[in-house]
Design a protein that fits this description.
By secondary structure, the chain is an alpha/beta fold. Helices cover about 35% and strands about 25% of the residues. It starts with a strand and ends in a 6-residue tail after the last helix.
Length: about 550
């Protein structure tokens, strides 16, 4: 069905030419599945965009053919390619929020897919509602009339899947469709794609940076590195006997399930040949002091308005944090896991007093945080900081990195001299593994992993004693994730930090944490040591989270 031969794609960047895809060749037969795995910048998405003829204007296709059902897509005119897009080849994009129009209701956006089908508005609505049912969206009639911001991440992705399958395409391209989603939502979407593929007899090209996830849906896989295919074969062949050092690195840099090494292996070590997949892990023991409490939460409650009447008066509420109580000990890392909407982020922002709560108590060093005013609250915030999930949205795009990191120093009056602030910021940049020249750059000049390091450097600027990491590695490639996790552990050992580490990835949480706390519907349903919760969960919900973790069988 799809035949790609010797595809070479470059991009113009200022006066430079960057080779993004180098001599890529592969085929997909009718009804077959193929996975493409690699990190950001490996050429996966560029290859997919070339198939759809959606490359940016600065892209240069130097050579190659992309044959679909015997016709070369690269030689088609605009009318011909429009006739193929969405009808014969469809695509699910990585980030549904940026793929959906925020000012259009989901139903109206779906209706555009049908184009000039000759159907009436009523018939189109009926088909859309049926598609929403097919992709297992709850309350399809309500979602038809909802805006994207009113849906969860998993629901938005299901709307994108419904749009992609509306015309029953022959080939479906799924480009990182589950990145940053909860493991249970990931599993549901994978099962849904499998079911739809079989029902419609589609071919599927599944793109991801996670080999474990790819193994759940495809039979054969290609590994891409710096624009080239470095390895290909059946899933079991590539998993059990990887040939290329890059593939070995992708497999080994994930946190191991049954071990807790002092440092995670990184892909750079495999590429350089300084390590191998069978190297013994240096084990580390917890150094948390479980006698001295640093944070104590008692009966915390926070609710949000979920519905209003026509006069704007609240008619119903959702309990985002529901009678939550727990303690955090000095020097420990407390892992907090749960699905989107369970209350993890609301809880973390309540602790920092970034949002107000209805009732409850928060004690930090035995001082009532909710009773703090002005100067005392400022001092509290100096000792407690947060690393947000999306570093790009938490950095001002118009402010240089140096100024962004130096801003807290200026606000708190830690360094009054501009020269000393600059020196301190450069020291922080080097501490998190960035060159001091980064001081003058802007957020858009960094990769996702580098931006996360910038946010960590800013969080460290005030020498806090307590850090909350809110999904700090969720959207990062596995190799970048390993580097950031190593950095966080290094900083903990050097400065004696106490962490609350929030994530939906139980493997990562188990590796990072001394204890794990599981949250569901605003409540804490289970808490215990990392090994106990992972290996012998007491609650059915925790067992379901663990069973949903992707991996090769």
């Amino acid at each position: 069905m799809l035949n790609i031969q010797n595809l070479n794609i470059s991009f113009k960047s200022n006066n430079n030419i960057i080779d993004a895809v180098k001599s890529v060749s592969f085929e997909i037969a009718k009804g077959d599945t193929l996975g493409i795995v690699g990190e950001s910048g490996s050429g996966k998405s560029v290859t997919a965009m070339a198939i759809m003829r959606l490359l940016a204007p600065q892209a240069i296709i130097k050579s190659g053919i992309i044959e679909f059902e015997g016709e070369d897509i690269l030689k088609m005119n605009n009318a011909q390619i429009r006739n193929i897009r969405a009808k014969k080849i469809s695509m699910i994009f990585q980030e549904p929020m940026t793929s959906l129009n925020p000012v259009m209701k989901c139903g109206k956006q779906m209706a555009e897919v049908f184009g000039k089908s000759g159907l009436t508005k009523k018939e189109i609505k009926e088909q859309i509602v049926e598609l929403f049912k097919k992709v297992k969206l709850p309350r399809p009639e309500k979602i038809y009339s909802s805006y994207p911001h009113q849906l969860s991440g998993g629901q938005k992705q299901r709307v994108m899947i419904a749009m992609a399958i509306a015309n029953k395409p022959d080939l479906l391209i799924a480009d990182e469709p589950t990145t940053a989603l909860d493991v249970r939502v990931q599993k549901d979407l994978i099962l849904l794609l499998k079911q739809l593929k079989d029902e419609y007899g589609m071919s599927l090209l599944f793109i991801s940076h996670d080999l474990g996830l790819v193994s759940e849906i495809v039979s054969h896989v290609m590994v891409m590195y710096k624009g080239e295919i470095v390895e290909r074969g059946s899933i079991k062949q590539v998993f059990n006997n990887p040939k290329h050092n890059y593939t070995k690195g992708l497999l080994a840099c994930r946190p191991p399930v049954n071990e807790k090494p002092a440092r995670l292996k990184t892909i750079d070590e495999f590429i350089s040949g300084s390590t191998n997949i069978k190297d013994a892990f240096e084990q580390v023991e917890t150094k948390a002091d479980f006698t001295e409490k640093i944070l104590k939460i008692e009966g915390l409650n926070k609710r949000f308005v979920s519905d209003k009447n026509f006069r704007g008066k609240a008619t119903s509420f959702v309990n985002a944090v529901d009678d939550v109580s727990f303690e955090v000990f000095k020097g420990e890392t407390l892992g907090l896991v749960g699905e989107s909407g369970c209350g993890k982020t609301t809880l973390s922002r309540s602790i920092l007093r970034l949002i107000d709560v209805e009732s409850g108590k928060i004690f930090f060093d035995e001082e009532d945080v909710l009773g703090l005013k002005s100067n005392k609250l400022k001092k509290y915030r100096k000792n407690m900081n947060i690393v947000f999930q999306d570093p790009y949205s938490s950095l001002n795009p118009r402010i240089s990195i140096g100024k962004a990191i130096g801003e807290p120093l200026k606000v708190f009056g830690i360094e009054t001299s501009a020269q000393r602030r600059k020196q301190k910021v450069m020291e922080l940049l080097e501490k998190v593994g960035l060159h001091k020249d980064s001081y003058f750059k802007y957020p858009h000049e960094f990769s996702g992993g580098q931006r996360q390091r910038v946010v960590i450097a800013r969080a460290l600027a005030l020498n806090p004693r307590f850090l909350i990491c809110d999904e700090a590695v969720s959207a990062l490639d596995v190799s970048v994730q390993a580097k950031v996790l190593n950095l966080l552990n290094d900083l903990k050992r050097e400065f004696g930090f106490t962490y609350i580490f929030i994530s939906h990835d139980l493997n990562v949480v188990k590796y990072m944490s001394d204890r794990i706390m599981v949250m569901k519907d605003g409540k804490i349903v289970e808490i215990g040591s990392a090994d106990e919760v992972y290996n012998s969960p007491k609650q059915e919900y925790t067992r379901q989270l663990i069973e949903a973790i992707p991996g090769i069988s």
